[in-house]
Structures are given as C-alpha cells and as structure tokens.
Amino acid sequence: MLDLDPAREGPTPRDAATLVLVRDGPSTVELFCVERNKQSRFLGGALVFPGGRVEESDREESWKDLVLGDGGDLRAFAVAACRETLEEAALLVVDGHVTDEDVVALRARASADDNALRAFLRERKLRLDLRALAPLARWITPRVESRRFDARFFVAPAPSGQLGAHDMSETMASFWDSPTAILARFDRSEIQLAPPTHRTLMQLAPCKTARDAMNVARAAVLDPICPELVPQEGTLALVLPGDPEHGVRETRIAGPSRYVLRGAHWRAETAPGTGRA
Among 156, 115, 129, 12, which Cα is nearest to 68's? Predict the structure, then answer.
C-alpha cells in the first residue's frame, strides 16, 4: 500500500486535495468512501476519500466566476477536491440542485474533455460551492515515500439527491458508512486504511450528525502533519508531530502519536513511556 524506503529522500510533494462528504444516517453520521484500484502505485487497494492532485487547470483564473465563495489561498485545492470527487465518486458540490443522472453523465463527459465541468457549470448557471467545504487537516507524505503529496483534507455536506458511484478505473468500489463501522472493519483486518484516512475517521467517529462533523472541521488545527519513519522493535513506525521520536515536538492532531506496521496494517499506537491516547 505504501512504498517506504528508509534510505530514500523522496521528491518534493505535489499539491493534492481530498473531500470527505458527510450525511445524516439513521443513527449517526455517514461518510462516502471509495476503494482505490489495487493496481494503483499509490495506496493501491486502500479505502480512501475521493481526491487527487491539484492540476494546473485548477489554478486558472477562469474559475473565479464559477465558484461560490472566494476560497482564499485554498481555492485551487478546493476546486481540485470538487473536481476529483466528481471524477472518482460522481458527486458534485454546487450551489443548486443537480440530479444523480446528470452527475453521472457529466463524469463521462469529463473523462474525455478536461473543460467539461466548467462548461457544465456555465450551461446550468451553477457554481462550485466552496463555502460548503471546511478544511480539516493538512497531511504531507513522508520523505521516504516514492510519491509524495501535500494534501488538504476538506469536509462538506453531501449534495442532496446524489448517490455517489465509483468509476471502475481509479476506484473499484464505493459505499456510505459510519466512521465507527469503518474503523471496526479495519480492526478486523478486513480493509486497508492509510494513516491519514484512519485518523480522519477517528476525528469524526464521535459525530452523530453531519453538522457535528462540520463543527469538528471548523475547529481543526491546520498545521502540516508529515509522519517520519523510524525503526520499532523489529518493524517500522510512522511517528506524528508530538511523538518523542518526531522532529516536531508539538502535537498537531489528537490521538495516538504513531502508526506501527503490524503484519500488513499500520496500527495506531501510543509511544512507549507516554500517556498520549
């Protein structure tokens, strides 16, 4: 799932964006997840939230009149999060109603035409609703990875009337479920989760409603989190800021301070000799 080499100094991270869509379920909040193609070089086979790298087209000034809300320094990231979620999950966050059928058809158009989304917004007199996106976290791939990303995680309410669907190319399965249920599947070794995905689920697990999840995002600390790889009693650990073995001393995200490779899974654990939980 990860390509880590302790001797490697990886490339400069590329900007990326991820969108966590949330909705009210029967008893608790639900999130939309996709399973990455097992053939993917990065996180192959893992469950993730829709997202991908920021393209140069996401930075173009032509978006200025096609978005609701300025987005500030994060506008290109927010545009990329929306675009990638359309492509990978057939979900589109806009300032008006769009049917599920329309979104699926638009995704098909976008696969062959890079300008399809902007053309669709102009045709329908719609805008990407960047005001709906709340930044949750900033994760940077460890320096020892062969492919590195500086990824901004956003949370947004799920668009009404849209179901979501994987694309059978980059993503091979998709579903809505609660953070608690997804974490339980990971604990049973039924699925693969990368540390940023696992920690995002932990952040949102206490939420009962989509509004709760949005409030968590609005209160989040956005300092960058770049795990560092260290040896750990015959295996490896990815330590987070605040862990005794990380170069950054201050804690930047709540929860266990490291992920230790146990078999084929990275398990969240507390650093030995500390009381951080």
Answer: 129
Average pLDDT, the chain: 95
Assess contact for 78 and 17: CB atoms under 8 A: yes
Residues in the chain, how many?
A: 277
Question: Are 217 and 133 contacting, i.e. CB atoms less than 8 angstroms apart?
Answer: no
Burial of 190 (0-12, 13-18, 19+ CB in 10 A): exposed
Strands (E), 89-192: 128-129, 134-140, 149-157, 171-177
For residue range 36-86, list pLDDT tens digits in order: 988 887 788 999 999 999 999 999 999 999 999 988 899 999 999 999 999
30 DSSP 8-state letter:
E
d(CA 42, CA 120): 30
Q: Which helix (H) or strand (E) holds 236?
A: strand 235-239
Q: Rounded to whole angstroms, how far apart are CA atoms 149 and 12?
A: 8
Q: Which fold has domain 14-225?
A: Nucleoside Triphosphate Pyrophosphohydrolase (3.90.79)
The pTM (predicted TM-score) of the whole model is 0.95
SS3 state at 104: helix
Say if residue 277's pLDDT is above 60. no
Neighbours of 73 (CB within 10 A): 7
User: Long-range contacts for 272-275 (Cβ within 8 Å, ≥24 apart)?
Assistant: 273/244, 274/243, 274/244
Could you read off the pLDDT of 95-111 as tens digits, one per residue? 999 999 999 999 999 99
DSSP assignment letter at 84:
H
Residue type, 254: A
Q: Produce one character per residue of 90-107: b if its CB has 16 or more CB atoms within 10 Å, e if not.
A: bbbbbbeebebeebbebb
Domain boundaries along the sequence of the chain: 14-225, 227-277
Q: How far apart are CA 277 and CA 75, in angstroms?
A: 34
Helix (H) or strand (E) holding 158: none
